[in-house]
Amino acid sequence: MREERERETEQRGFLVDLMLLRLGRWLRLLGQDVANPENDCDEALLGQAKREGRILITRDKRLFSSCSAAGVEGILIRSSQISEQILEMAERGIALRIDPQRCTLCNNPLEEAEGRRGELWICPVCQRFYWRGGHWKSMEEMLMALNHRMHQRE
Questions:
Q1: pLDDT tens figures, 41-61
Q2: HEC profile of 8-54
Q3: 84 pLDDT more than 90
Q4: Are 15 and 56 in contact (CB under 8 A)?
C-alpha cells in the first residue's frame, strides 16, 4: 500500500507557498519536483498550481480551503518544525531517502559531473554543486530517524 502511495505521489509535481520554502528544499533533496511560488498572493498561487498541474503545499488553512473551489489539489501541513513537516509528507507517500535529481534552490534537473558518477552533481542553471560530504551523512541520519518514527506510528 505504501509503495503504491509513493509511486503515485512521486509522479506529481508540488508547489510550496512562501511559508514552506525550507520544506520545498528538503523535498527536492528527496527527488521531488517542487516549484517555488512566483507570487505570494493566494490567487496567484492557486493559478500557478492549476496551470502547472501541481499539488499546492501550504500551512495556510484559508488557502488550503480555497484549493478545491479552484480545482487544485492541496496538502495542509500542520507543523511548524521541519522534521515534522517532512514526516507529514512521508505519510503521504514521499520516500525518506536522498535522491539528488533537482537543484534545491531553483528546482532544475541536476547533471552528474563528468567522471564522478553518483558522487557529484551540478545545476546547469545556477551552477550550484552537490556532493556526498559530511552533511550528507547527517541528512541520512535524520531521515533514518524519521523513517523509524513513521514505522512506530503505523
A1: 999 999 999 999 999 999 999
A2: HHHCCEEEECHHHHHHHHHHHHCCCCEECCCCCCHHHHHHHHHHHCE
A3: yes
A4: yes
